[in-house]
Specification:
This protein has helices at about 1-25, 35-40, 45-50, 60-70, 75-85, 90-105, 110-120, 125-145, 145-160, 165-185, 190-200, 210-220, 225-230, 235-250, 255-265, 275-290, 295-305, 315-320, 325-340, 350-360, 365-380, 380-395, 400-410, 425-435, 440-445, 460-470, 475-490, 495-510, 515-520, 530-545, 550-565, 570-585, 590-605, 610-634. By secondary structure, the chain is an all-alpha fold. It starts with a helix and ends with a helix. Residues about 1-60 have low confidence and may be disordered.
């Protein structure tokens, strides 16, 4: 039941979260209301909190979808596992839940789990569901690029379903299309053509989707004119992009005319980004074919900027309209060689190329970048390549959305060796851009290449941010080393700096590096810091000792935190610290000390619910200590 799940999972997490943010330094207000605390979290937290207070009833799929919509896919998985009806008791509902589970795997691209789950269906599931499962497995295998396995699965589907079965007849076209897609994925064009002909025998009136797939095969098979005729009258915009690509490849109409026509379509913002992106790729190819490399580069850069890095493209788009930053580099380099031939520049004469490019920087920056691209590839001296990179990247950054273009040209996996060539000031800007997009991986990759802050930056804040980026990206040893160097070389931290530093140390605790956190906390220069801040540091040291299961040491630090300003203090902070000290003493089986602290807290506590908790703790001590006594006597 959902109510049980809420009690077991959500409520405990909610209390833990509220406790943490109420006590950590950035939320030091004495009386922070629950309403104020909830406002500090994003919409996902609000949705999860609303679920906690849903009336107790059997969970339904709407709640699972609510969690998925909130981005809480892991919690959605927990609900699925806990609440899915039993197959034998309610087969129809079980099948609905199972379909949602598969949809969740697909959304998170967890193809391995999808295949594993559907490969072990109970034997008594309906035939239709079993057939659907095999189809989903085949799709997942294609996504994993395991074409041999996908083809094996699809062949079984096709062969094991008799032709007189209505369900099989309706699904057969989709299966055959998947067979073709698998062949295309492995580059087996000839078998894709054979499968296409077999499909045509079974389907007299194919739909537009099928025609696009067939046109794709024809283009890849070197028959663009046939593809052009096939989709010539289709109105779907994806069909139009394929039509113009086929027309361009067929060569029966001038590339310049195609370029002008498709450029007009690509500029139409009424079309989807996907459609416009494909049109711009055709524009780039047409311009290149017309030897207009300036226009080709411009079109390809627009196509890059229209990419959605969070969404994968369709299989057909990968086959016909695939492009990346490497393609832009090749266009710049090719354009540069054309210009070099025009001006009789010889490869190896770096000075002549560099002189010509430098003269073009202000008036013809794209031509200058093209010449720099050739130097980047072919310069004799390494220093020339470094300077060429520096100038190329600086000119690119000045263009509209230049930082995004730099990301595609310098930060994709195939260009790993080029990252260090980006000027340092641009690398700092790219880090800021990556952090704004929550792209910690890229920010970390760039951060590791920088050891000094940008001009005018606060050195302490910059070093803390650098360390935090490394920690968040999983580069824990590097991040810890950066923190240790920062603490060692900074004699005094200003209040804001100290507050920010504590956040980084909390991150270190979150990832379980408590030994290092303890060393860093204890080495902080605390002279001149407020008494309350010193209490907090002692408290967080205690927390780390608790996680290291050094309960007696943890209790010592909790109690130091409670009584640092006044040994008899019972303010809210002291009460919290004393309560946790008693908890860890109980864990360490120091029953007498734990009992005395609980008793003193009980004496001053008036809130009924809190008193109940303390009484239960005292009773727990009595029970556990009595169980220990006989064992000691033996």
């Amino acid at each position: 039941m959902l109510a049980i799940l809420c009690k077991d999972v959500f409520i405990s997490q909610a209390r833990e979260y509220i406790y943490n943010i109420a006590t950590r330094s950035r939320y030091r207000q004495k009386n922070v209301s629950l309403k104020q605390l909830i406002k500090t979290k994003n919409i996902t937290w609000l949705i999860l909190m609303s679920i906690i207070y849903l009336p107790a009833h059997a969970a339904d799929l709407r709640e699972v979808k609510l969690l998925i919509e909130a981005g809480a896919t892991s919690l959605a998985q927990i609900v699925l596992d806990k609440e899915q009806p039993a197959l034998l008791l309610n087969p129809e509902e079980w099948l609905e839940w199972e379909r949602q589970r598969v949809a969740l795997y697909k959304q998170s691209s967890d193809w391995k789990k999808l295949i594993e789950r559907l490969s072990h269906n109970p034997k008594w599931v309906p035939v239709e569901f079993s057939r659907w499962s095999q189809e989903q497995i085949a799709q997942a295998q294609i996504e994993q690029k395991d074409t041999d396995a996908a083809l094996t699965t699809l062949r079984k589907l096709i062969w094991n379903n008799p032709g007189n079965n209505p369900a099989s007849i309706s699904l057969l076209p989709a299966w055959r299309q998947m067979v073709i897609q698998a062949y295309l994925l492995e580059g087996n064009i000839s078998d894709a053509e054979v499968a296409m002909l077999r499909y045509q025998q079974d389907n007299v009136n194919p739909n537009e989707e099928w025609k696009r797939l067939r046109a794709t095969v024809l283009i890849l098979a070197g028959k663009p004119y046939d593809a052009q005729l096939l989709v010539e009258k289709d109105t779907h915009m994806h069909s139009r992009t394929i039509f113009y690509l086929a027309q361009l490849n067929a060569g029966k109409k001038s590339a310049k005319k195609i370029w002008k026509r498709v450029r007009t379509l690509a500029r139409n913002k009424k079309f989807s980004k996907t459609t416009r992106r494909q049109f711009w790729v055709v524009v780039a190819k047409a311009a290149q074919k017309a030897n207009d490399y300036r226009s080709a580069i411009g079109a390809m850069q627009v196509a890059l900027l229209l990419k959605d890095v969070k969404r994968d493209v369709s299989r057909e788009e990968k086959l016909l309209f695939a492009f990346n930053g490497d393609d832009v580099w090749r266009l710049y380099e090719h354009y540069g060689r054309i210009l070099g031939n025009k001006w009789q520049l010889l490869i190896g004469n770096d000075e002549a190329w560099f002189s010509k490019a430098s003269n073009l920087v202000d008036k013809q920056p794209m031509q200058a970048m093209a010449l720099f691209a050739v130097l980047i590839k072919d310069a004799v001296r390494e220093q020339t390549r470094v300077v060429a990179h520096n100038l190329f990247a600086s000119l690119m950054a000045k263009r509209q959305q230049g930082l995004s273009l730099l990301s595609y040209l310098y930060l994709q996996d195939s260009q790993k060796d080029k990252v260090a060539y980006i000027p340092e000031d641009l690398r700092h800007k790219l880090i800021d851009k990556s952090l704004a997009q929550s792209d910690i991986k890229t920010a970390s990759r760039l951060t590791r290449t920088l050891n000094e802050p940008p001009e005018g930056a606060d050195i302490v804040f910059w070093k803390m941010r650098r360390a935090r980026i490394l920690i968040l990206a999983g580069q824990l040893d590097e991040g810890i080393k950066a923190l240790q160097n920062l603490v060692k070389t900074t004699p005094v931290f200003e209040p804001q700096q100290m507050d920010r530093l504590l956040q980084v140390l909390f991150d270190l605790q979150t990832v379980g590096r408590h030994k290092e956190a303890i060393r860093l906390f204890t080495s902080l220069p605390m002279e001149g810091q407020s008494g309350q801040l010193r209490r907090e540091v002692l408290y967080w040291i205690a927390d780390s000792y608790k996680h290291e299961k050094q309960f007696i040491t943890a209790a010592r630090y909790y109690l130091l935190s409670a009584g640092l300003l006044d040994a008899k203090s019972m303010d809210p902070w002291a009460q919290t610290a004393r309560y946790h000290a008693a908890d860890v003493l109980l864990e360490g089986k120091s029953y007498a000390d734990a009992g005395r602290i609980y008793k003193r807290l009980l004496d001053i506590t008036k809130e009924k619910s809190r008193r109940v908790v303390l009484k239960n703790k005292i009773q727990q001590i009595w029970l556990e200590s009595n169980q220990q006594t006989p064992a000691k006597q033996k």
